[in-house]
Amino acid sequence: MLRLVENHSLPRTAAFFDLDKTVIAKSSTLTFSKSFYRGGLISRRAALRTAYIQFVFLVGGADHDQMERMREYLSALCKGWNVAQVKELVAETLHDLIDPIIYDEAASLIEEHHAAGRDVVIVSTSGAEVVEPIGEMLGADRVVATRMVVGEDGCFTGEVEYYAYGPTKAEAVRELAESEGYDLSRCYAYSDSATDIPMLEAVGHAYAVNPDRTLRREAVAREWPVLSFDKPVRLKQRLPEFRMPPRPALVAAAALGAAAAAGLVWYASRRRQAALAHRLADGFARI
């Protein structure tokens, strides 16, 4: 049981959460691919390829090189997208797509940290315009996320202004600690991926959530607690008074966002997993 009671005479503290597969069960950015397809932003081929990337992210994990390839693909994919249109698509589908995949355990932790007087900060490799409305939905106090460059025509240029990944996340945590007065030795951090080890090292209380193989080894070696989140639940089911934020508060969806780091999800049957991968690969190969 976490001891989350805060002594308010001490310096401020915060809890830093990775998003994908730590707070929600999927990749936040890739989850919107069907909406982007229906809205005419991506082709059927791109939608199928994105589904394949999501599958790889969920069942097999992704190392640094794979993450870089995903980033390059998604950057090129969103080039030329009209930001206003993307905003509208995310605002229309945020509740239906994201609310059902929020881990009950993560939502409870967020509530407990707030009750203890800690700020809650979402730190994600996914795009800021996707992460910010999710953070607002969760009641997060701050968000750190990847930012895309928007041209004078209001469209994504395909370039990345700020990439919240790996050591960059740890730098952002330290900068926030300096600006907000957080005592990092008393702060908490949660992630599923070994790529977030620098962020976990930056705080006094690190937790591995549904960790990938490498992070699990590190957690054991460093005696970091390992948590298992496996109960996605709608916020409305947890909080009867929960209401979605008003539409003006929902900002645009960034197309970019490679999955924040990959954990490992085991299906009940490996045969079923292999068959699904084979069908996806065959479909992608045909196009």
Rg calculated over all Cα atoms? 18 Å
Estimate percent helicity: 40-55%
Give the SSE string.
EHHHHHEHEEHEHEHEHH
Envelope shape: globular
Which percent band covers the strand fraction? 5-15%
Structural class: alpha/beta
How would you sum up the major sheet?
Answer: 7 strands, mixed
Low-confidence stretches: 240-287
Taking the alpha carbons of the first and last residues, their distance comes to: 50 Å
Helices, by number, come to: 11
Total DSSP E strands: 7
Strand order of the largest sheet: 4-3-2-1-5-6-7
Indicate the mean pLDDT: 76
What does this structure look like?
With about 290 residues, the protein is α/β, with parallel strands linked by helices. The chain is built from eleven helices and seven strands. A seven-stranded mixed sheet has the order 4-3-2-1-5-6-7. The protein is globular. It starts with 13 loop residues before the first strand and ends with a helix.
In short:
The chain is of the alpha/beta class.
Keywords:
287 residues; alpha/beta; globular; disordered C terminus
Please write out the topology.
Blueprint: E1 14-17, H1 33-38, H2 44-59, H3 64-78, H4 83-98, H5 104-115, E2 119-127, H6 128-138, E3 142-150, E4 156-162, H7 167-180, E5 188-191, H8 197-201, E6 205-209, H9 213-222, E7 226-227, H10 235-238, H11 270-286
Parallel strand pairs: 1-2, 1-5, 2-3, 5-6, 6-7
Antiparallel strand pairs: 3-4
Helix pairs in contact: 2-11, 4-6
